[in-house]
């Protein structure tokens, strides 16, 4: 897909700050440090669009990026950073629930997990939340350059098993370092929001 334009449109905490034009939305979520900012920058071919996290767990807003004046890319706040206070975790939950519980514009949520590791319990909770609210889920396995291609399938089955993915739910490997998997992720994004 050709990115003709991408602009950050808003950073929201409250519903009143969400876009109101009814355009389709595709959201990205994952634990802190999973490579979410790098993935956003890679997909949009921008160097420093989404801030890569110097202080993990600090971004507590929902960022809406308008792509090709056609749909929104929604960067959801990361979770699972061990050192944050409980009050911060609660805030994260409130911000997320507010967005997820009633968002007809939202076509699918792309859940980012590290290709190398079994998903954490927080990842499992996030996946269950996505399903609970009734959204399509696509898994992006980040940092794919860290293992050899021959090992992908083994790692996919570990991820699939821990999250208990449904058969038709996809796992797509991506590497922001090597810029691989970008087209595959775009194809899936387009499929999800045009469906
Ligand atoms: P975020 O907290 O989820 O936004 O994660 P970042 O995008 O800030 O990335 C966290 C760390 O992982 C940084 O040190 C990145 O350089 C590294 N990283 C992100 N993507 C990749 C990747 O595809 N390959 C490798 N090898 N490292 C990556």
Number of domains: 1
* Total beta strands: 7
- Major β-sheet, in short? 7 strands, mixed
Distance between the termini: 16 Å
Radius of gyration: 16 Å
Kindly state the percentage of residues in helix: 25-40%
Q: Please indicate the percent range of residues in DSSP E strands (runs of 2 or more).
A: 15-25%
CATH topology: Rossmann fold
Number of helical regions: 5
The helix-strand sequence is: EEHEEHEHEHEH
Low-confidence runs (pLDDT<50, min 5 residues)? none
- What is the molecular shape? globular
Judged by helices, strands and strand pairing, the structural class is alpha/beta
- In the CATH hierarchy, the architecture is 3-Layer(aba) Sandwich
Q: CATH H level: which superfamily?
A: P-loop containing nucleotide triphosphate hydrolases
CATH C-level label:
Alpha Beta
Tell me what the structure shows.
There is one protein chain. A hairpin with a 3-residue loop joins strand 3 (62-67) and strand 4 (71-75). It is globular, with a radius of gyration of 16 Å. It is 31% helix and 22% strand. The longest helix is centred in the middle third of the chain and has 15 residues, at 86-100. Strands 1-3-4-2-5-6-7 form a 7-stranded mixed β-sheet, sandwiched between helices. It has one domain (6-194): Rossmann fold, CATH 3.40.50. The two termini are 16 Å apart. It has helices at 36-44, 86-100, 121-132, 152-163, 182-194; strands spanning 6-12, 25-30, 62-67, 71-75, 106-114, 136-142, 171-173. The mean pLDDT is 91. The protein contains 5 helices and 7 strands. By secondary structure, it is of the alpha/beta class. Bound molecules: guanosine-5'-diphosphate (GDP). Guanosine-5'-diphosphate (GDP) is lined by residues 30, 32-38, 52-53, 56, 78, 142-143, 145-146, 175-177. Keywords: Cell cycle, Cell division, GTP-binding, Magnesium, Metal-binding, Nucleotide-binding, Septation. One of its GO terms (cellular component) is cytosol. Necessary for normal cell division and for the maintenance of normal septation. Residues 22-195 form the EngB-type G domain. One of its GO terms (molecular function) is GTP binding.
